[in-house]
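Researcher: Here's my situation. A collaborator sent me these components and asked whether they could plausibly form a single complex. I don't have experimental data yet, so a predicted model of the whole assembly would be a useful starting point for our discussion.
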Amino acid sequence: MSAIDDRFRELRDAGKKAFIPFVTAGDPSLQATAAVLETLARAGAAIAEVGIPYSDPIADGPVIQASYTRALDSGFRLQQLWPMIAGVQSRLGAMPLVSMVSYSIIQRLGSDQFLQQALEAGFSGAIVPDLLLEEGNQLREKCRQRDFSLIHLVTPTTPRERMLQIAQASTGFLYFVSVTGITGERDGLSAELLKQVEWLREQTDVPICVGFGISRPEHVRQLRDVADGVIVGSAIVRRLAESATPEEGVAKVGQLAGELIAALE
Amino acid sequence: MTHQSASSAQPLSALPDARGRFGPYGGRFVPETLMRALVELEREYSAARSDPQFQRELDGLLSSFVGRPSPIYYARRLSEIAGGAQIWFKREDLNHTGAHKINNTLGQALLTLRMGKTRVIAETGAGQHGVATATACAHFGLPCVVYMGAEDVRRQRPNVFSMKLLGAEVRPVHSGSKTLRDAVNEALRDWMASVETTHYIIGSAIGPHPFPMMVRDFQSVIGKEARQQSLELWGRLPDVVVACVGGGSNAAGMFYPFIDDDEVRLVGVEAGGLSPRPGEHASPLTHGQPGVLHGSFSYVMQDEDGQTSPVHSVSAGLDYPGVGPEHAYWRDVGRVEYTECPDDKALSAFDLVAKTEGILPALESSHAIAKAMELAATLPKEKVVMVCLSGRGDKDAAEIARLRGEEY
Ligand SMILES: Cc1ncc(COP(=O)(O)O)c(C=O)c1O
C-alpha cells in the first residue's frame, strides 16, 4: 500500500473524485514548483504529478515539451529535484506526489537507485509513459517490494483484453489516456471515451483517472460520473508559462484548480 | 568458431528474439498508444516476409525502379594511393534517388499498402531517406509528410526541394538541436495521433521492435548482393567489409549477410566530428553507454541524468546521438569493430574520391572510405576491402562550398 492507495480509499469512502494536477519540475524554477505544489495542496488536489524534464519526450505536446526544454536550459538536475521534494513535503498535507518520468532516466540511474532516491525524497509512485506492460516486469516487482505505486497507462488504441491486463498490473491508479495522441488541451471529450471508461470501471477495482486534453470545468463534469479522477497538465503548465512572474503563475494555477475541483463536486 | 549470442547456442543471424531483443538491446520503449500499431506491423511484416508474392513485387521494384543489383567497383587509383589491399565499392550511390535508403522505403511502402494504411510519415537527416520515402509514396500514390530538423533543411537544401517536387510535404522541426534526433521525435509525435491511418517509415535500423529487424532485412539486399558478387568474381569473400554508421541501416544491411562468416572482418565507422570531446562527435558506440532513446535500448550519448547529449557531425545523416540496437550487440560480442572518423578526414576522402575515381561520394559514405584507406594500407595487395558506398555526394556540394567559403 502506498499513500496513493490510502488516498483513493479515503476519497471513495467520502464519495469524492480526485483532482490530479501535473507540474513540470523546475519551470520556471524549483522554488516556483514548490510554491505551486503548496498552492495545489491547499486548493484540495488529491495527488500531484511532478513531471521530470526529459530531453526527448515523445508523448508530449508543445506546451509540456517547451516547459521541459526551459527547465533543462535553466540547468535542471535530478540531484536538485530530490531535496526540493523532500523540503516541500511537510507543507503538502495529505497530498501524495507521483513522478512522471521517462524510462530513459530510470534506466540511466538504475532502477534501484531511482526508486531509493524517489522514495527518500517522498514520492509515492511513478508514471513511466514509455514503459509498456511487457517491458515493465522487473521495475514492477521492485516497486511492489517497496510499496511504490507504478501507474500504467491505457489508451483508446488499447484492445479490451489488454486493458484488463494493464489494469491488473497497475498500482495506485490506472491512467486512462483520453485521446489517441500527445498531451495538450482539447476542445471536447469523445462519447466513445466515456463509454470505454465506463466499461473498464465495471471490470476492475483499481482507481481510473483520465488525462490528456482535460482543461475545462465541462470536461471535468463529463468525467466525474465515470472516472475516479481527472489529470490536468498542459492547462496548468501553460498558465505558469504565460505569467510575467512566478507569483502571478501560482495565483492563476490556484484559481484554475479551484474551478476544476468545484466542477468535480 | 562462429560468433554466437551469449545466452543461447544460436548464430547471430537468428536475432532478434521474440521480444525484439538482440541480447539485452532493442525491445520497445514507447507509449502504449503505439503498441497496437507495432503489434500489427510485426504481424504483417512476418506474413509478408514469407509471402512469395510480396517478395516478387519488392524484387521487381528493386530491379526495374531502383536499378538493382548495384555493381561492385574496383577503386584502382584510390587503392594505389592508399597503398596495400584493393579497395572495392558497393555502389549504392547508383540506386535511384542516390542512396541505399530506397531499399527500405519501397519495402515499407509495400507494407503500408498491405496494412491498408493511407498516409505515410518519415523523418530525415541528410534528406536521402526523405527523398526515398517521397519517391516510394509518389510511386504508390500515398500522401507523405517528412519531418526534418531546421538545421538539416539548411545543410541539405537540394533534397528539400526534391521532396517537394515529388509531392511530399516537408515540415521543418525547430525544437532541440534541430537535427535528425528532433525530426524522429516529431515524427513519433505525429504517429501518436495518426497511428490508426498512418505508417511511420522509419529511416534507419532504430526505433522499437520490429523496426530495427525490418529495416535491416530490407537493407540486407546490399550485403547479399555483395557476398554473391564476391563469390562470382573471386570465388571467395572479401577480407574486410566497411560501412559508415549513423542509425546503422546501411551498415546492418551490408554486414548482416556476412555476420556468420567469421573470416570476414566487419568494421563500422561512426562520425568522429571535431574531436572525441562530448558534444563534438556522434559516436555512441565508441564514446557512449547503453541507454534508451527513440523506443529502444542501445548505445546512446547521454548525461548522467539520462538526458540526450548534443552531438556533431559534418554529415547530417550521421549526426545522431543513438544507434540501432543490433549494432550494440554486435559491438559487445566483438563481432563487429566500431571506430570513428573525424570530419576533416571524411572531407579529405570526399575530395580524393572525387578527383581519383570520378565519383562524388556522400559525406556519410566518405567516413567509411577514409577508414577503408587506413585499413587497406595495413594489408597486402591480394586482400580485398569492400566499402559500402551508401550514397552519392551531390547533396553535399553546397555545404562543402559553404565550409570552404567558396561560391556554389
Ligand atoms: C548516404 C547515406 N549514408 C549513410 C547514412 C546514415 O544512415 P544509416 O546509418 O542508417 O545507413 C545516410 C543517412 O541519411 C545517408 O544518406
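Model: Some features of this prediction you could bring to your collaborator: The CA atoms of residues 247 and 323 of chain B lie 4 Å apart. Residues B 99, 125-126, 128-129, 204, 244-251, 317-318, 362, 364-365, 390-391 surround pyridoxal-5'-phosphate (CB under 6 Å).
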